Amino acid sequence: MSSDVIVIGGGIAGLATAHELIRSGASVTILERSRCGLEASWAGAGILSPLLPWDYPQSVARLAQLSNSLFPEFIEALTTETGIDPEYQASGMLVLPELLPESSGDAKGLRQDARNQMAEDWCGRNAFPMTRVRSREIARALARDQEAFWLPGVCQVRNPRLLQALIRAVNLAGGKIVEHTAVAGLRVERGRTQSISTSQGDEYSADHYIVAAGPWSRQLLGEHALKLDIWPVRGQILLFKAQPGLLDTILLQEWDYFYLIPRHDGHILAGSTLEEAGFDKSPTTEARQILLAKAHALVPALTEETVSGHWAGLRPGSPANIPVIDRHPSISNLYLNSGHYRYGVTMAPGSARLLSNIILDKPQPVDVTPYQWPR
Ligand SMILES: Cc1cc2nc3c(=O)[nH]c(=O)nc-3n(C[C@H](O)[C@H](O)[C@H](O)COP(=O)(O)OP(=O)(O)OC[C@H]3O[C@@H](n4cnc5c(N)ncnc54)[C@H](O)[C@@H]3O)c2cc1C
């Protein structure tokens, strides 16, 4: 069995890359261990921005900005090709700084002022719209009125729908998706991947091989991973069903990164945890209680009675949240698109474009050195 490109892993990274390559004329096969789009890419919250972009290296912000510029066309293409609406919307994000008691004024207050100034400077430099507001001007359901930052340009998407659209678009465009097929190993000779074997004992070969296996990427590559550092970081989300319109915008607490994300139909996602639990993706009672307490403290209408779901997913953790989007240093037809950690949906179209440009030898829109394969 052979094709131009084999993509290993049918999460957002693999599907978006396949979609991009097919649109450039490549013939692509995706091999997925279970079913496409059911791991972190399904579990994620769908905010299309680093939570506080000024807290990250510029390489994270740059990739997010590239993706943001590509998202409208990406969604338009998917919706037209498939008829599925991924509910892409600029719902904006309201950032709530920590409320300091009067007595803590001085040192802590000064630190907060400095952070606020840093955030404003960063937004100014990066043409990222931001204004200072009173929080209840934007979200009336909040328990407290306070000073806040309003970022009206932040968008969101509904992950499961985006994934459904991508799967259908890849299929309709002639991409081949082979599910329930785990890649077990790579056969590398003379500096090239010759073929890969699957758990069923089949062999597949292609001109190019892309690993997009999320937190499993390092294990899968084995000795070929070199100094690649990608590991699983569990994240849990609690889902509420509220009256549509209770909340129209994303809320983010600055000090603990706790967020609420409203969907059109009244669902509100509360998240998320950051836990090192290996490959265990079971939701826990403790996390449920913490997320419920935080959600209720922020928006009192969110109570136990309104909880309607709870799940966990495994992010592909990476140092400083910088993904690897690159060709292998010594295996000329092996590539990686992984390690997007907290922002794999945000960075999907940009990462797909960069990797596709590497494979097709096209010029890059941004400096790709930060995303190199560590050696
Ligand atoms: C709770 C939570 C909230 C999040 N919120 C956001 C957010 O708001 N915004 C944002 O941008 N990002 C968010 N993320 C992060 C984002 O979801 C991830 O960065 C992204 O989904 C990673 O996508 P991926 O395709 O690399 O990995 P995955 O979705 O894990 O896909 C990898 C795929 O590879 C397959 N695979 C693994 N091994 C093999 C093998 N040997 N053979 C074949 N297939 C294999 C797996 O089955 C899986 O389908 C969140 C994540 C979580 C968990």
TrEMBL record:
Keywords: Oxidoreductase, Thiamine biosynthesis. One of its GO terms (cellular component) is cytoplasm. One of its GO terms (molecular function) is flavin adenine dinucleotide binding. It holds the Pfam family DAO. Pathway: Cofactor biosynthesis; thiamine diphosphate biosynthesis. Residues 4-356 form the FAD dependent oxidoreductase domain. One of its GO terms (biological process) is thiamine diphosphate biosynthetic process. InterPro entries: FAD-dep_OxRdtase, FAD/NAD-bd_sf, Gly_oxidase_ThiO. Transmembrane segments: none annotated. Gene3D superfamilies: D-Amino Acid Oxidase, subunit A, domain 2 (3.30.9.10), FAD/NAD(P)-binding domain (3.50.50.60). This is Glycine oxidase.
